[in-house]
Each structure stands twice: as C-alpha cells, then as structure tokens.
Specification:
The structure is a homodimer. By secondary structure, the first copy, chain A, is α+β, with helices and mostly antiparallel strands. Chain A contains 20 helices and eleven strands. Helix content of chain A is about 55%, strand content about 10%. The interface between A and B is large, with 77 and 76 residues. Chains A, B: It is found in: Peroxisome.
C-alpha cells in the first residue's frame, strides 16, 4: 500500500493555486498526489522539494524568463550558480550510496531549472570527477576532495576538432621523458586541438586529457587519460604552453562554456597519468594489468555509458517540461467551437490530443526506463569498484552499453520531436522565448549529438544483437543477458511463427498486445539484418562496407525497435506490479498502452511488409 | 537551347575558390553553371548578383556569424538595413510587372542574408502595403508613395492575444460616429489586444487594423480593415489612446519587432476605412458591393494566400541554405574508414546520404513549386485588379487558396525537419552558432505557425477536395480547376482500379511511377475521407465534430498527399520539358524521382493498408 499524503503531508504536495486549469483537474479520474507518490516515493519527493525550495528562495537563482542575457553574463551566472549548488551540499556521499537514484534526481532538478547548470555540474562531478576516480588510483584521491570543494574545476577532453566519433583517430600525444620523469602533452596541429570540451571555455582549471601514450624506444600504447592543469585557479590565466579558449555562441546551453585547447609540449609529472588501465614506471617502462590494447581502451572508455544514461535522463526532463507547458496551454486556450458563440479548449480537438498525449505517455515510460537503467549502471559500477572480473560483470557491461547506446538516441529524439510538437501546438505563444519551449528544444538538441552521435551510437546496439545471433547460429549459444533484455530472443524461431489475432481496439489497450508485436518485430529485424549482412559479405563487401550498407534499412530500425521494446517491457512490468494502488491502475495502464501502440505504429509499414514477405497473415488491422 | 555562360559571362558565375570541395566538384556528372542557368535564367542570375554584390560591399550588412547581438541592437540594425534596401531600389514597379518572379527573388535574397530582414521588408511592403492597395481605394493611394519612401512604416494587425486561427472571433471594434465623421477604434479588454504583429513592436507608425464595424442603430457588419496611425513618425512615440509595445525575445527572427497594441477609443477619420469591400457614408449608412457578409469576409482575407506563398518561398530558402551547409561539411569531414589509416568523407556513408540527399531533392522540387504557385497568384491578382468577377476567377482563387494552404505546411515542415537533420548530420559543428544551422531552424520555425497554423490550414485543403467530391457525387459535376491540379480526380473510379506492376528498382527511377502511385493514393484518401465524414454525420455527429474526428487520420494525410502530388507533378513536368539541356536531364530526373519516392515512402503504411482493405494486390514491394 502506498503511503498517503492526506493530512500532515499537505506541505509536501500542496494544492495547485486556483486558476483556469481547475475545471480539467476536477475531471481527473485519479489523484495526482497518489500518482506523484507512486512515481517518486515520499523520500524522493522530499529531496526534490528541498532542492526546489532552496533555488526558489535564493536570489542568485532568480531569473526573468525570456530575458536577453549576454553570453558572458550568462556564463558567469551559471558558474556562480554551480558553485552555490556545491555549497548547498544537497547530497552527501553517504546518501548517494544509500539512495543512488538521488544522483540523477539532483541532476534532473538542476536540468528543470536550467540545462546549462545541470551540464556544468554534471561535467565537473560525474564526468571529470568520475574519470579521475575511476581511471586514477590512490595517488589521485587528493583531487577528489578539491573537486567537491571546487578548489579546482574540471573538464573532460577527449574530442578533437577533426575527430569525435572515431576516438581511435585522436592525435594528441603524451611522450614520456625519463630524464625529468614527466609526460610531454602535445597537439600536433590545429585539427588535433581538443574541441567542444564543456567547462573548458572559461572556467576549468584542470582537464582529463586523452592522449596517445608513448614511452622511449617503444611503440604507442594508445589513448590514456592524463590530468592536466590548464589554468591558474587564482587568476584563470592559462598555464604555460596551453592555448585555451571559448568556442563562442551555440544553439543552446549557452550558460555552459565549451572550449578548445592546444598543448604546446606541456610537461606534466609522471603521476598525472590516470593509471588504472596502464602505468609507466619512473624509468619509462609501460605496464598494464590488461594484456590487450583493445580491452584496455574499452575499459577506459567504459565511463561513457554513465554519460549516456545521464543524458537520457536529462532528455526526459526536457520532454516532461515541454509536455506540461503544452498541455496546460491547450487546456486553457480556446479556439473555434460547435457554434460561433461557444469556443472549446484546443485540448478537446482530436488533432491536439494526437499530437500531444503520446508524448505525455512517452515521458512516463522513458522516465521509468531512465531510472531503471541508472540502477543497472550502479550495479555495474559497484562490481567494477569491488574488482569483479567475472564473465557476468563483463556481460553486464556489454548489455548496459547496448541499452545506453540506443536509449540515449531514443530519449533525445523523442524529446526533440516532442518539444517541437509542443512548440507548434502552442501556436504563436509557443514561439515566445518567455514560454520556454525554444530553450528546451535548443538545450535538448545536443543530447542527440554528444557522447556519441545518435545514428552512430545505434550501430553499437545493432552490433551487440547481431553478435549474439552469430554466437547462437555458429556456436549454438543461448540468448542470455544479466538484465534479461535479450532473453526472449532465444525463442525467435517460434516467435516468428506467431500470429496476432487481436480483433478489437479494446484488446489493444493492454500493452501486452503491443509487447508481443514488438517481440515479433525485433526477431524479424534481427534475422533480416543478419541475413542482409551475410549476403553483403558473400557478395564481396568488406566488413566495413557490409555494416554501412545494412545500417539505414536494417541496423537502425533494429536497434530502435529493440530499445523501444525494452522501454515498453519495463514500463509494462512496472505498472502491473501488485503494489500499484488500485486507483492508479487504469491511468497507468492507459499510459503504457498508449506509448507502446504509438511507438509501434511508427513501424507499421515494416509490419505490413514483413507480413507480405513472410506470409504472416494473422495480423489484423488495428487502426480506426 | 539554354544560353551558356562560357567566355564573357564568367563574371556572372565565377568559379568557386579552390578548396577541399574540389575533388567532389570535379566528379560532378553535369555543369553546375548550366544547372544554375536552367533553374534561374540569366536575367534572374544577374538580378540576384546585383543584390548580393550590394550587400557584400555595404558595411551596414557586414556581420560576424554567431555574434552575441543584443535584442535592441539587432532590431535597430535590422530596421536600418530594411531602410537601406529601399534606398537601393533593386526592383522598380515596371520591373515588378515585367518580371513578377523578381518579387519573391528579392525576398528570397534578403531571406538568404537574414530572415528578419526579409520579414521586415515583406511585412511593410507586401503585407501592409498590399493590404492598403488591395483593400483601399483611390483615397488611400497617398499612403502607397509614403510606404515606398519609408515616410511611414507599416504593420498588419489581425491576430489578437486570444484569437489567431479563429478570425471570426476577433473582438476589436470600430464604431462610427456621424457627429464627427470618425471611427472609434477600441479594444474591449487585454484578450482583444492585437498581438504578434510584426513591425509593431518598435518601428511601425501605421497599422492596418482589423476591427468589427458598427454603424449607429445597426447591426455589426463584421471585420473590416482600417488604417490607423499608431506612432508619431518623428519621435516614434505612441499616438494618444494607443498602448503599443514590443513582445520581447522570440525563438528566432529577433531582428523583427513583434508587438501588441490596445486601442482606447482611438478616433480616426471616416476615410481610414479601407473601403473596397464596404464603406460607410458620411451620414453613417453601411454600403457594400458584396451582398453576403461571408463573401465579403472571404475577399477581405483573400490576401492571405499571398502571405502563404511568400512563406513557402522563404521556407525553401532556409532549406536550401541548410542543405548546402550540411552537404559541404559532409564532403570534407572525414570519420572512420575501411582501415584505421584511411578515413572517408562522411558523405560516402549510405546513412549520411539517406539523411541528406532527399532534402536536396526536396529543395529543388519545392523551389520550383513555389515559383510556379507565385505565378499562379500573379494571374489571380491581375484578374482581381482588372475587376474580373468571372466564375473562373473565383475558382482560381479557391484553387490557389487550397494549394497555398497545404503548400505552406508542406514546405515549412520539410524545411523544419530538413534543417534539424542537417544540424544533427553536422554533429557538434552543427551546434555551433556561427555555422548558422540553428539560426535557420529558429527563423524557419514560425513558418509553421503564422498566416495559419499548419495543422489548421491543412483542413482548408481537405475541405476543398471534399467539397469537389460532394459536388461530383451529389450533382454529377466534373473535377475541373483552372490550374488543373484536381482534374485527374475525375477518373477516380478507374484510378482506384489500377494496379502497379513495377518490377524493378530501376523502373522506379522515373518519377512517373511515383506519380501514378500518388494519384491512386489521393483518390483512395479522398474517397475514404468522404465516406468517414458521412459515416460520422450519419451516426449523429455535428458537422463540427465530424470534421474534427476525420482530420487526424484522414483529412490531414489527404491534404498532404494531394499537395505532394502537385509538387511532384509540377517538378516532373518541369524536368521533362523539351527545353531541358540534354546534359542536365539525368541529374534533374534523379532529383525528381528521389523527391517523389522519398515523399511517397512516408505513406508506405497507408499504401499497404489500403491494399489489404481494397484488395489491390498488384502493388509490388519496391524497397530493397
């Protein structure tokens, strides 16, 4: 039984102020307070309220919506706000371990206030800080304390001007000089300048710089992370040999100072190497617990999953905000009506409902997915921290990598399209800056690009699935993964034989129906992609060509459908738990079915085509 | 035979500067100069070159891409630039009549430089000026000269805070006072404030204000346009009784000052009524050449088609700019490759091609459509000016209204989606303000909303088609329209019996194949929509409900498919003219086929479903 908020807890979830939305709110078939409690839990609601109350009461966080803030002023304000967030110390390390979901919740609250603030905080702590913590060793612990006191301010410098997606082509070098026991960090030319680095533009004092490690008389050992001081913390002037600057105005997130840096033979102590994956002895010998360069590289970039999961949750925040704005507007804006005298709320139009309500359902489904994936990630990181080198731990890493690599694209695109739809659905009012939809869209946009371009990332997920099928076909292995997201594929031959015999619209309102269709679709796409890939290879294409030729028509829809299925599955299970309050079951079930059917409907052409090709005639037409 | 530009005309189309695009340019299968000449014609190329050269050489038009300009500074600059455009006097009235396409060409050139400038110029001349010219009479000619000398600066005030789409619900009043021979313009409350009016925020001295006309002891005669002075031209201070202001920051087009105004019993002379549709005698009697209020209202808003056609052409400009930026980037950006040593241009990836090339084709097809529709509009306006009240003229007005009402949505959405795809396809670099994709997206965005929300407008087109079918079913009338865009529907029963027997991908590379499929699709959708509408009505829905219940699933796809068909048809005919230079036929044919197939493919689910429902089994599967 969920706790209630009646009586003493009114302060936690106070009534909304009276206004034009009252009429709609009175018509709700459920208690919004009960839903909030079920979705968040009381402890989390309190945590969020603490954060929002602090921001509401602090003049540093006051702002005028749609204000015309200069770039410099905005960046300065955002830095001061970021610093203040540390001072508030909303989340202790103990709390973080006890309630790990409070980490994304804090980031989401900051994102609700301003994406630039969330990004600045996240980049310093969870990206820079985590990189130092997870790639470094005991000798780097001194940095951690300075990070949390903001004595130093950090950034994560991987991408270069000419290389982002293809990290293996990154060209910054780190040569070890045994004479002085230093590394020499160097950018060979401007195309190898570090680029797009968040926090680097104006404020970072330190950077985790990825560079190719060379020791004397030896081959290159590949990319390694180094902690490099780039500015004097007192004056913010660049350190000798470092050319660092701000990249200027962006489409959004202008509170965040993205920067570039070139290193001209910058000498850093040997201890600057974050040495968990590999180290250099004072004499200049390279040593590593990992034998294989590829494996080392994989582990050193493993932290990217955590970035993608954070982005996923920030995309969900943007979608939530936009859909709330658009639905509230639609419930109060009246235009046309059955007679000239009587106008109706635009929310009453089927067109407006079709445009907006699926995104409301998507916000719920993706929000749940983002939380559950974060908890999976925590499990992975705990295993990592405790030195777990089991096969399961490795499998878990691969599975989470596959889920995050398609989850970030799905969430960021859904948010991008949803915000655009909300903007248009609010007509001219949606185009006014003070109504925030533009900022949400612009701030969400880079979610489609950073930590891996969406289209490029999807290939990681389709490759994961194709690898499992190859393993099954060639070695008779089972489809099994620690989180069980691929287990259903084990039955793919029988799933592909299934027919759908749904005869009424009412039956489709159970998300189990869409789930079954999704399973069929993913099995079908996986098999087709596998066959197409092999056919490409047989006809003489290299692996590289074959993959490229399959991605548009096969790999991409496979990865997206698989992830949608996973989101639908997890949300379906969530809303059908026995602990769901009876009064919420109907509305949650409808949200689940709506998201599932809406997502599935975008594959309708594929379903029809598959039916023709494979002679699967049982699927009845469900549309109107 | 098209003229050539070799030799003496090198100055008109000079070679591109040498650079990283040379390799791709050298591989072209056609001469870009020949294509430019065929697409534009030599006279137009010269005209555009004159404009661009003037802007390039005038320091007032110098700018830093991605600069952080304050709102006030940007609005001031944009006003000064607009004034300078008048001083350049690029287009004389004689030229305008001789080569009407130079009007949209001028607007497009300004739009290529900056959407805010194009909008500001367009609103003053073609919207405010045209309204005065076409709704006024001889007594208003004095304004026209002042418009072109910028002695006065104008805006068009129709929309109110609470009503945009539903113009009939507009509530500003104009009561005639025979004692002083004045109209009293009045805003009853803030919800009736004029809102979103471009140029009104800071700079307009005069407004065409739409208000409900009342004469003493008589009923309301509906909306009429009045020319009202809102500011002193010397000081720009508001006139007595006028509360006018700027709406603040928008998502884009921030060089344009959108404003609001409330009128507190503002008295204007009787002659301020733009009296072509109706007039008031000095004594206060209402007189009109139109008997019917609806007809009068229709004619007085007829000018909206011209606004929509202008928006269509500006959306095409945005798409052209974005696709050029993204394709050039993709041809020079290298990432990954068949080996670690060799990276290939991202344009070589099938994924990048599938993302971008359809938008290149769309830019060509829609550009042609926008020009041809503009010429149709010129024909309509000439008939209007010469007092043509024939049935053909009325039919032409309705047909152009239907084409513009779906053409604006199609073009603005294609541009919106295309620019977003270009932004993402350029990765992080696409997110940098100086690379302009953000500005293009933000400036294009209102094209989806103003002069009619896209989704609302599409209903105009579907209603037009449904009305023709009803006329055919009920009265046995033929499908015939002056521009012949609906004539094919006359054969709808036999078209619906047709089967598609295309057996190879190669066959589909002729846009005639997609055209035939489109004709079938439009006939199918029209019939289904008609049946669904009648079924709704038979089951007791009011007209209002029935239309709303049909729009999402039927009316909307019907309107879009009809317009896509028209665009494909016109471009198909254009590129298959005998005058097309032989060396361009292949590339133009491919562009035509690509746009047609890509557009059609978005209706694939509908085609499959229709096939199942109607037993039209001949359509073979064309996708790989």
């Amino acid at each position: 039984m969920a706790p209630t908020v009646e009586g003493g807890d009114a302060a936690l979830l106070p009534e909304f102020p009276r206004g034009p939305l009252d009429a709609y709110r009175a018509r709700a078939s459920f208690s919004w307070k009960e839903l909030a409690l079920f979705t968040e839990g009381e402890d989390m609601l309190r945590f969020k309220k603490t954060i929002f109350s602090a921001l509401e009461n602090d003049p540093l966080f006051a702002r005028s919506p749609g204000a015309d803030l200069s770039l410099d002023k905005y960046r300065e304000l955002n830095f001061l706000r970021c610093k203040r967030i540390f001072e508030y110390d909303f989340l202790s390390v103990e709390d973080m371990f006890k309630s790990p979901l409070k980490v994304p919740a804090l980031i989401q609250c900051l994102g609700m206030y301003d994406s630039s603030l969330a990004a600045k905080y996240l980049l310093h702590t969870l990206v820079f800080g985590s990189a130092v913590y997870s790639s470094g060793s005991e000798r780097h612990l001194t940095y951690i304390q300075k990070i949390f006191s903001m004595e130093i301010f950090g950034c994560f410098a991987l991408t270069e001007l000419s290389h982002g997606s293809n990290t293996k082509a990154i060209r910054t070098t780190a040569h070890y000089d045994p004479a002085t026991k230093e590394f020499i960090i160097h950018s060979p030319d401007f195309e190898a300048a570090k680029f797009w680095v968040g926090n680097m533009g104006k404020t970072a004092t330190h950077a985790v710089v990825f560079a190719k490690l060379h020791v004397p008389g030896d081959q290159c050992h590949g990319l390694h992370p180094f902690i490099v001081q780039i500015r004097d913390p007192k004056t913010l002037l660049p350190m000798p040999g470092v050319m660092v600057g701000d990249m200027g105005k962006k489409l959004g997130q202008n509170g965040l100072d993205n920067g570039f840096a070139m290193f001209h033979k910058v000498r850093v102590p040997r201890q600057s190497l974050l040495n968990r994956m590999g180290d250099v002895t004072p004499e200049g010998t390279y040593v590593s617990p990992f034998k294989d360069v590829r494996q080392r590289f994989g582990v050193s970039l493993g932290g990217l999953s955590s970035g993608r999961v954070s982005i996923l949750s920030l995309a969900v925040v943007n979608l939530k905000l936009a859909i709330a704005i658009a639905l509230r507007f639609s419930a109060t804006r009246r235009q046309f009506g059955p007679t000239q005298e009587e106008e109706i709320a635009v929310l009453e139009y089927p067109m407006q409902q079709c445009r907006l309500l699926p995104y409301l359902a998507a916000a719920y489904a993706l929000d749940h997915f983002s939380k559950s994936l974060f908890l999976d990630l925590v499990e992975l990181q705990r295993g990592h921290a405790s030195g777990d080198r089991s096969a399961r731990q490795a499998e878990l890493g691969r599975e989470i990598h596959a889920l995050a690599s398609a989850g970030k694209p799905l969430a960021s695109w859904t948010a991008q399209q949803g915000i655009q739809e909300c903007r248009e659905a609010c007509g001219g009012h949606g185009y006014l800056a003070m109504n925030r939809l533009g900022v949400l869209r612009d701030d969400n946009d880079p979610n489609c690009t950073y930590e891996g371009d969406n289209n490029v990332l999807l290939q990681q997920t389709s490759n994961y699935l194709l690898g499992l099928l190859a393993h099954r076909v060639q070695d008779g292995a089972c489809f099994r993964s620690p989180l069980k997201s691929v287990d259903f594929l084990d039955a793919y031959p029988s799933i592909l034989d299934q027919k759908f015999e749904v005869s009424s619209v009412a039956d489709c309102l159970d998300s189990a129906v869409a789930l079954a269709a999704y399973k069929w679709l993913v099995c079908y796409l996986l098999q087709e992609t596998y066959q197409k890939l092999n056919q490409e290879k047989r006809s003489g294409s290299s692996d590289f060509e074959a993959r490229n030729n399959c991605q548009v028509s096969h790999g991409r829809p496979l990865a997206l459908a698989f992830l949608e299925l996973t989101v639908v599955q997890r949300f379906h299970e969530h809303v059908h738990q026995p602990c769901v309050p009876p009064s919420l079951r109907a509305v949650l079930g409808r949200l689940s079915a709506l998201y599932a059917l809406w997502s599935l409907s975008r594959h309708a052409a594929l379903l029809y085509r598959a039916e023709r090709r494979r002679g699967c005639p049982g699927r009845r037409d469900r549309s109107s």
